[in-house]
Amino acid sequence: MFYLTEKIEDIVKARMYARQQLIEGWDQGVIDNGCILIIGVGALGCEIAKDFALMGLGKLILVDLDTIETSNLSRQMLFRVGDEGRPKAEVAAERLKEMNPYLKVDFYFEKLQKLPISVYEESDVVIAALDNFNARLDLNKICLRLKKPMVEGGTVGFEGHVQIIIPEGSGLSYKNKKREIDNLVDARLWEITEMEYPEYFKAQRKIEELEEDIEQIREEKINPLIRRFRKEIELVFDWKYAPEVLDQTPCYRCLVPIPPADDKLVAACTLKGLPRNRNHCVIKAEVNFEKKYGHRPDLNLNDEVLKLKEIAQEELEKLRERVFNENIPIEERSSLTKEETEEWKKNIEDTFGADYKFEEMENILGNKIAAIQTVSSVISSIESQEALKLLFRVNGRNIGDPMDPPYVNYNGVYGQFDHLTIIKNNDCLACGEIEGEENVHIVVPFDANVGYIFEAMKLSEHKLDPELWMITSPMTKEIYWNPYMPSMKDPNIKLTSLKIKNNDIITLSPLGKALVESEIKKYNVIITFM
Ligand SMILES: [Zn+2]
C-alpha cells in the first residue's frame, strides 16, 4: 500500500513538471533536492516563493520579522484580507503548502542576523527580497563569509533592479571563459610598444596602405602574435585570472560604500527643533501622541491613526502660521488686503501641502517608499530566473550562465532594461582588502556638540564608549575628543565651533581596552547637519 502511494505521488509530480522538463539541460532532480532561502516575504518574496513552489523546489526557507498589514494586501500575493497581524513568513508557508503539497517549507519570524548559521549553510542560493539598506548589507556580509551565491533585488515606484552576487571562493564559475580570455588578449595588445614588437606595428601600417594584402599580412605578422598571447594567457588563466574574473562579482557593499543615515537620526534631530516640513509634523505628532496617551500609536488601529492625524494637522497649522509670521512683519500685517493675505496663505499651503490624508501617517512614520505590484512582479521574476540558473550551477549543472554584467535596472515608465557594468571595489569594507573599518553616515542637529556624535553613533547601532574612543580629523589630524586628555574632553563643545562643516568626515579610533576588543579599528563618519 505504502509502495503504491509513493508511486502515485511520483506520477503526479512527473505530470506536474512535464513542461519544464522539456527545457534543454533541465534536471528535475536538481529542483527536487534544492533548497532556497528567501529573506523578506514582502511583494518580491511572495512572488519568488510562489515561483519556486510551482516549479517543485524541494525546500524553501522563509524569513521575515514583520506581520501582515492592510497596505501589504495590494501587492503581497500570498496574503488575504483577514491575515492582518499574523507573521508574514508563517502565513506564506501555509499558502505555499496549499499551492504545492510536496513542498517542504521552514519559516522564521526572526531577524536575518539572528538565524542559526545552519539555515544559511543548508541553502543552495540566498535571495534578498528586502526593503532596506542595512539588512541587505548584513546579508551581503553573511553570504560573502559563507560563500553563498546571493540574488538581490529591489523596487522603488516604477523602477527596480536585480543584482547577482557570487562570492570569491564559491567555486561557481561566473563569466564566459572564452570571452574573458579574448578581452585579456586585446588588453595585452594595447600595452605593447613598437620597440618591443616593431614587426607588429609595421604590419599594422601596411594593412592601412595595402588593403589588398591585408589578409596575407595579418596571417604572417599579426595572428602569430595573437596566437602566442592567447596560448600564454590560456596557460595561466585558471590560476591567474579565473578567481578574479570568473568566480566572483562585486558584492552589494561595493555599490553602497556609505550606507545612508538611519531614519532614527533624522527623527531625533527633528524633535530637537521646530518641525520644518510636512514629515517633521507627523514625527512630532507621534511624540505628542505618546505623551498624551501613554503609548505609541498603533498604526493598525484606525482609531489611533485618526487621533494621530488630528495632532499632526495641528502641528501643520502651527507650521503654516509660523511661516506666515516669519515672512510678514507685524507692522505690515494690518496693511495687507484680504486678497493679499489669502494669496500668502495659499502659497504657504502649496509649499507644505494640503491637509493630511489618513494613509500619510503610516507612509511617513514607516518611511515607506512607493511600491506597485506590476513592477514587483517584473523584478521578482528576474530574481527567480537568476536563482534558478544558480541552483543548477551549485549542483554542477548548467542551464545558462548568470546574467553578465551581474546588474540590471528596469525602468517601468519607458519599459526599458539596462545592464549596468559594476566594478568590484578593492577598498570595499565587505569583500575588499581593507579590514576593520566601517563607514557611517550620521545626521546631527545644526547646533550639535561633540557628545552628540556618540549618541548618533548609538542610534545607528554602533554603540561606543566615549571613554575609549578618540575623534580626529582625517585631513588635519586635529583632535576633537580624547578621553585620556582632560583638555580634549568637553562634550558640550559645538561641532560648528570646531569648524566641522556639512558632509565633512571625522575619524573615530579605539583606545585602550577598545583597541583590543573592538572588531572595528576605524570608523569613517560623514556628518550631515539638518
Ligand atoms: Zn564588495
The gist of it:
46% of the residues lie in helices and 14% in strands.
Can you describe this structure?
- With 530 residues, this protein is α/β, with parallel strands linked by helices.
- It has 4 domains: 8-171 and 371-420, Rossmann fold (3-Layer(aba) Sandwich), CATH 3.40.50.720; 177-246, no CATH class; 264-365, no CATH class; 437-529, Ubiquitin-like 2 activating enzyme e1b. Chain:  B, domain 3 (Structural Genomics Hypothetical 15.5 Kd Protein In mrcA-pckA Intergenic Region, Chain A, Roll).
- Helix content is 46%, strand content 14%.
- The protein has 19 helices and 13 strands.
- Strands 3-2-1-4-5-6-7-8 form an 8-stranded mixed β-sheet, sandwiched between helices.
- β1 (35-39), α3 and β2 form a beta-alpha-beta unit.
- α7 packs across α9 (214-246).
- It is globular, with a radius of gyration of 30 Å.
- 29% of the residues are buried.
- The structure holds zinc ion (ZN).
- Zinc ion (ZN) binds next to α10.
